[in-house]
Amino acid sequence: SRNLRNNLKNNGVEYIITYFDESIQKKEDKYGLLHEEDHYQELLPLIKLVNTDETLAVITKSQYQRYSPSILYKNDNELNNAIQSGRWVELSCGKYRNNIFPAEAALVSDIVIGHFGGATAGLEAAMAGRRSILLNPYNFNGANYRIFKQVDILYTDMSAALNAISLFRQKNPESKNLGDWSPIIDLFDQYRDGNSSV
Q: Which of 18, 155, 181, 192 lies in disulfide reach of 109, CB 3.0 to 4.6 Å?
């Protein structure tokens, strides 16, 4: 994580966003929540940012290898341009499941974008000390919704999230708490003592 972050910074990148997907389904799968087209539309603003802002990089970390954007959308010119820029990086390891930990991807970044549905990758990023926001395009209001609403982490879609990140980067005082879980993190992990593997 440290090496990748340093390499990006040494090549002129000023800000790094990490994106975590959720389970992606084919359109014909009636049980899927996020279909490929929805996923692509969520990725597209990130792709466009990389292609237009040389100070920004995007790291993606998919749950499964088959969900890597370069595999799902291998013929997409905009995505391929972003990849060729060197500022679109897909972290992956393993044959089927992506064995990269969310914390590993989060530690490369300045802020993480995950999803309210699931939310574990976003939580892991927050526990690793990174700012983390969650997309909630389906207006879920499950068990943790009231907790999440106490802090500035929930956004309806990618455009709203990226607008908030832009304001934060401009040092807008109203955005200073963007992605900051510190007021609620103890509700999820009271024992952040560095001894979890002991």
A: 18
Residues sharing a CB contact under 8 Å with residue 12, sequence separation 6 or more, in sequence order: 54, 55
Q: How far apart are CA 65 and CA 141, in angstroms?
A: 29
Q: How many Å apart are CA 115 and CA 15, to the nearest integer? A: 21
Place of tokens 């389906």: 138
How is 21-44 classified by DSSP, letter by letter? ---EE-TT-TT-SEEHHHHHHHHH
Identify residue 105 by its one-letter amino acid code: A
User: Are 5 and 107 a contacting pair, CB within 8 Å?
Assistant: yes
Q: Which of 39, 46, 37, 40 is CA-nearest to residue 18?
A: 46
pLDDT digits (tens, 9 = 90+) for 135-159: 998 888 888 999 999 999 999 999 9
Q: Please tell me the pTM assigned to this model.
A: 0.92
* pLDDT per residue as tens digits for the range 8-52: 999 999 999 999 987 787 777 766 667 788 889 999 999 999 999
Cα–Cα nearest to 139, from 160, 165, 120: 160
Q: State the pairing for strand pair 88-90/56-61.
A: parallel
86, 198 contact by CB (below 8 A): no
